Amino acid sequence: MNSRTRVFLTVLSTAVGGSSLILYTTISQDILFKGLSFCSSSVQELVFGSAAFFLSAVVAGFISTLIVVKDNVLPLVFISLFVVAKIFLFTACGQWHGPIWFETGLNLSHLGGLWLGCYGAVKFPLAPM
């Protein structure tokens, strides 16, 4: 694979992976669970909403890794840096809807889910070489 193709796939994978992470997170947090919040949601909603939040990151990491033909983790590094920057920015601006430990845990589950999705895509038997 030449360098132009590799750069194109890296940019495409970062854009698609980041967009799918935002889309699936919005669907799981705002549409399915009607604004998941530590203060206003029930325990059952928190458990299922947190699991859906994690699974959205797993799917995004899986999709992103399959696009770059599973030999390049640079898109996941960029998406992970975006999530870490979001944690610091929201903490500095006070934009959390609940306790900092809960919101930070949700975003750290995003990081873990992204990398678990990457691992799943690498081990996926039908992935392109």
UniProtKB/TrEMBL annotation:
<feature type="transmembrane region" description="Helical">
    <location>
        <begin position="7"/>
        <end position="27"/>
    </location>
</feature>
<feature type="transmembrane region" description="Helical">
    <location>
        <begin position="47"/>
        <end position="69"/>
    </location>
</feature>
<feature type="transmembrane region" description="Helical">
    <location>
        <begin position="76"/>
        <end position="98"/>
    </location>
</feature>
<keyword id="KW-0472">Membrane</keyword>
<keyword id="KW-0812">Transmembrane</keyword>
<keyword id="KW-1133">Transmembrane helix</keyword>
<protein>
    <submittedName>
        <fullName>Uncharacterized protein</fullName>
    </submittedName>
</protein>
